[in-house]
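Interim report, section 4.2 (structural modelling).
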Amino acid sequence: MTAPAPIARVMVDSPLPQLDRLFDYAVPASLVDQVTPGIRVTVPLRSAGRIAEGFVVDIVTEIAYTGTLSELESVVSTVPVLAPEVWALARQVADRAAGTASDVVRFAVPKRQVRVEKAWLAARYAQQDAVPDAGPHAPTIPAPPTEPLGYPAGRIMASLTGQERLAVDAVPRVVELPSGEWVGHWATMMAAGAVAALAAGGSAILAVPDYRDQDQLLAALAAVLPPELIVRLDARQSNPDRYRAVLACRAEVPLAIVGNRSVVYAPAANLGLIALWDDGDPLHTEPLAPYVHTRDAALVRQRQQGSALWFLGHARSTEVERLVEIGFLGVLAPERTYSPKVVPTAAQAPQDRFAALARIPSTAWREARTALDSGPVLVQVARPGYAPRLACDSCGESARCGHCDGPLGTRAAGAVPSCTWCGKPAADWTCGNCAGTTFRLVGQGSVRTADDLGRAFPGIRIIIADGERQVQHVDDRPALIIATRGAEPIAAGGYHAVLLLDGERMLARESLRVGEDCLRWWSNAAALARPGASVVLVGVGGNLASAMATWRPEAYAAAELVDRRRLRFPPAIRVATLTGTAESVEKAVASVTGLAGADVLGPVGVDGGSVRAIVRFDYAIGAAVAAALRSEVIRAATTRRARVPGAPVRTSLPTLKVRCDDTEPFLE
DNA sequence: AGCACGCCGACT
DNA sequence: GTCGGCGTGCTC
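Predicted structure of the assembly:
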């Protein structure tokens, strides 16, 4: 009796939706001992001639397919780069988003690096040959965290052993690490979660939105874990480094894996914790198809692998609030209330002449004046540069770029204005409306605010921190730090006062999420203040100001969610935007209109002759809607468009695009 | 994507 | 009769 011939189930590495399923191939005898799940192979596709790359995702002996099987063409390498749990994750994430698994696998598996693979294989065989347990470098698994960190004793460890899903209210403080570096308290909390996971025998995936956050987290981790247990995996690394990191994740020992959004796809087989910092930050939204938010990928993965799941933040996103309200997430709050002293201030005319000079209200000016006697003061502004906008002096029209029609701004006092879109300087500008040649400045950027404050506070050190001038840390000496939102440095010991200046301007942005975003920007800045320091919120009232003043961001999120439910806006429901030819969008709409719990807005015409429709659907029918839309995408990709006489024979543009859970579906 | 299969007009 | 046009559909 011969053993049944093995059959490899292969995911073809192609972006085509019609190839997004498994293909079965006979494993030739010459390759049998090399073929394992996760390896890269090449396979013939559609009779001889065409060779495609793919990943073996499974090896079976029986399949439903009754046709004649082709054979695997070759093994690209024996390194199992697509871990089984990552494949399962990619499949389900793609299904949920009506996308293709190979699009998701792109985030999980970097481009192949032969040198890195060879080094990894060599190290693995060396390890296998070595005497077991003899490694002098065998890392010691850390003991569970003992520091209470402001949370009830034992809760961190309990959440890991109980595989709890939690919204964690971060402590709005900065803390000093043993190294002398100051970081947000949240970073030490995430590090504690990682230590707890490792102590319980599982790896931790820690996802942060940007590199500044990542630096804080890495510093906090370095204080509690040996470096060999920390893996950095982010998009800023070179491809070889990323590839090395992905392979390193597959170690026997549990690891702390740190990175930005795509780290959620890291191949951690034994997963103890997935923790996300600041899930409301738009950087957690993947800008590539199928546009899956890190939060959603984490939710899928948590269910598949059964780890603990933490969403940490100062402000609570409406998405997390919804999950709390339906009982899917518990809440872990600090043992006592840590609230920054927030002082909402109307944008009243300043009485003080110095304050008038800087256009800041008297209250804010007084707070800054007092605080500057003893330490650094943070001033948060909305925009970088000098004047974010220019207007024609005679007719008042906004000044536009002569090349691309983008808005003009200035970067420094007296500087030649330049386009904020294309960057081209506009040396001899004439108004397109009235042919005027002089303009006036509109609004204040970080540089102009710094100039004004410099005059109001003569002799005070001024530091500007924005996208161009990155400043991560400042010391505890008196200084005015003018920072654009999200670029605030961390001050040793915390700021002695925080002024949030451009609230009105930030709120003027047209967005469904504008309130949430502002609350996030302001509370993240407020969390950099030292205990007892004043946080002055200028020119903002209403429930946003009271949410800040009472430090109850979840109350704001809850109220916001009530509105979204009433209006049937996300995240109360899910949405999918369908873009494409009138015919394909109509068909896709028809495929979901029969489902109870789905309704459609549009279609309406958009630029370029396409149309767009928005499907709103309840979470309960998400799988059905995504499946229906996905099959419409395949249909649109495989059936040829009806020929228009006289028009070009065909275009290679896809006739239907589906995007699920767009954050701003109703704008554009 | 590519490439084979298939069903209608000009050719030896 | 059949050679080849490209529209249609499939890929283990």
